[in-house]
Write a structure and sequence with these properties.
The complex is a heterodimer. Chain A is mainly α. Chain A folds into two domains: 35 residues; 234 residues, MetI-like (MetI-like fold, Orthogonal Bundle). Helices cover 73% and strands 0% of the residues of chain A. Chain B has a single domain, classed as MetI-like (MetI-like fold), CATH 1.10.3720. Chain B has a two-stranded antiparallel ribbon. Classes of the chains: A mainly alpha, B mainly alpha.
């Protein structure tokens, strides 16, 4: 229907109000504050240029955090996509019990990052854990929890997050994969395509825009990793699993260095918005085709 | 397709074994990893579920708070998101799709990017430690995703659906209530459910906006763990199972509708 000005006001005002007050305004005020000495309980505020940014970038702990989150994103996102896609591909055709299986396979995503942290802390532990139970059956000696090992902590945190998020990717991909007409699979099979050929020429083209969208969401999620490490390792051992979000939180609320915390928080926003520009660019070229 | 059966079983085992382990621990059935081969000890009982209330006396209150905040936040986000999605889908300008994708970028923005100034702003307007601040902040964090998904659902509908109603003299709200909403109801319900889960599991927003007055389940679970390290695993496991049960029940009940939560950008009809 043709919308009048008044209609449009009614339609957009609630969202505009919500986003302006509780997201955009705080974000912009925060951005302004990063160029000053502002802090909630400071007496005088004055312009400080890029001093906060220099302080963040010079901090070696932030350097470790940036490196960790880069590794986290570059490893976790592709793994989540590949595992999520593979499981969805496996379930693409209807069979008895598929509906129940879909619900069961979504369960890990329903566990909050905090709950998953508490859970895996005990599952990696030697007295109570699943890892040492399995190793015991295989006749291998117990392993100390990887969460305490500086080299294994980050991979362990990544593995836990992949366990939690890959099922969500499956959930998002399955309806589209399942709705590919069966003739398309048969055609591909008749023309002698192997299963890799079917994945590349039938499955992927059908979900390509969807994969791009999911990649954007997962990238934002990993760049902001906070609660997934908070309980599991708390950023340790040493700086092995600290992330920019954890760093920002500790700066702003832990040691009361508000300007540095707000600044490193804005650096996360900048990274996600940068990824967002690439996403918009890529999805635009798709329309032009 | 025997290979597929094996693969499905292996997948199921990999994803569900950790949860099965937790469920067993909550019942008091624990592995004995010191014996060779490892064995099981303990007999099943529901005692640990009662201990949750002793270890964290506020736990049951937190459960109620979580239900209320998540339900209100999801309702507000889906409501505001739906109206805007409809407006975008029927907007005359061609770049409405581009705007919608901008909302997806906003949906990907981690809360940490802006919660530090947000908590300061809420303190200045005396909304810190209030139910309203937690609900509205959670709603604002998740509303962009609702806009993206619901735009896809509305854009799929042919404009002819509304034409007849408009010719009969129906105004905007009649068209939305009588024509559009019934058609996209499954997508709206699915979106509300997914947002409810996101709000249910959200830690950062309630963490920085309250000093313990409005305590949700993730907050409860986190200080369960940080302040009471000696806490035993079966009680923590019982708390985990209790906090997972409501969302798992919702997803089980509405699993048919959930398939309508689609991130596909619809090709306009």
């Amino acid at each position: 229907m043709r919308l009048t000005r008044r209609d449009r006001l009614f339609l957009f005002a609630p969202l505009a109000l919500l986003l302006a007050g509780w997201l955009v305004l705080p974000a912009l005020l925060g951005l302004l504050a990063t160029f000053t000495t502002y802090s909630p309980f400071a007496i005088g505020v004055h312009f400080s240029g890029l001093a906060n940014y220099a302080a963040v970038i010079r901090d070696p702990l932030f350097g470790s955090a940036a490196r960790n989150v880069a590794v986290f994103t570059l490893v976790a996102v592709p793994l989540e996509l590949v595992i999520g896609f593979s499981v969805a591909y496996l379930l693409r055709r209807p069979f008895h019990g598929r509906a129940a299986l879909r619900v069961l396979l979504l369960l890990p995503w329903l566990v909050s990052p905090i709950a998953s942290g508490v859970m895996w802390h005990f599952l990696f532990g030697s007295a109570t854990g699943v890892v040492d139970f399995v190793l015991g059956w295989l006749g291998r000696p117990d392993l100390p929890s990887p969460l305490g090992d500086p080299r294994l902590a980050l991979p362990a945190v990544i593995a836990v997050e992949v366990w939690r998020v890959a099922p969500f990717v499956t959930f998002l991909l399955l309806p589209s994969l399942a709705s590919i007409p069966s003739e398309r699979w048969e055609e591909a099979t008749l023309s002698g395509a192997s299963w890799t050929g079917r994945v590349r020429h039938v499955a992927i083209p059908a979900v390509r825009p969807l994969l791009l969208t999911i990649t954007m969401l997962l990238t934002g999620l990993s760049l902001g990793t906070f609660d997934a490490v908070l309980i599991l390792t708390g950023g340790g051992p040493g700086p092995a699993t600290v992330t920019p979000a954890l760093y920002s939180y500790n700066r702003a609320f832990g040691v009361n260095d508000w300007p540095v915390g707000a600044t490193s928080g804005w650096l996360i926003a900048a990274a996600v918005l940068g990824a967002g520009l690439i996403y918009l660019r890529l999805s635009r070229t798709r329309f032009v085709e | 397709m025997r290979l597929r059966g094996v693969l499905v079983a292996a997948t199921l085992l990999a994803f569900l074994l950790p949860l099965l382990w937790t469920a067993l621990a909550s019942l008091g059935v624990l592995p004995d990893n010191s014996s060779r081969p490892p064995s099981w000890r303990g007999s099943a009982s529901l005692d640990h579920f009662a201990e949750v209330g002793i270890a964290e006396p506020a736990f049951w209150n937190e459960l109620v708070t979580s239900v209320l905040t998540s339900a209100c936040a999801a309702a507000i986000a889906v409501g505001a998101g739906f109206f805007a999605a409809y407006g975008l889908a029927r907007a005359p300008f061609r770049s409405s799709r581009f705007v919608t994708q901008g909302f997806l970028v906003l949906a990907s923005l981690p809360a940490m990017a802006y919660v530090i100034p947000l908590s300061d702003l809420m303190r200045r307007v005396h909304l810190l430690d209030s139910f309203a601040a937690v609900v509205l902040s959670e709603a604002a964090a998740t509303a962009p995703l609702a806009v993206f998904v619901l735009h896809g659902a509305v854009a799929q509908l042919a404009p002819e659906w509304e034409e007849a109603a408009v010719l009969d003299g129906a105004g905007l709200f009649r068209v939305i209530g009588r024509v559009i909403l019934p058609l996209v109801a499954p997508s709206v319900v699915a979106t509300a459910l997914v947002l409810f889960v996101l709000d249910w599991n959200m830690l950062l927003v309630p963490l920085v906006l309250t000093s313990g007055e409005i305590k949700t389940i993730p907050l409860g679970l986190s200080d369960f763990f940080t302040f009471e390290r000696e806490l035993d695993w079966p009680t923590a496991a019982a708390a985990l199972i209790v906090s997972l049960a409501p969302v798992a029940a919702l997803v089980g009940l509405f699993h048919r509708v959930l398939g309508r939560f689609s991130l596909d950008l619809a090709t306009p009809a």
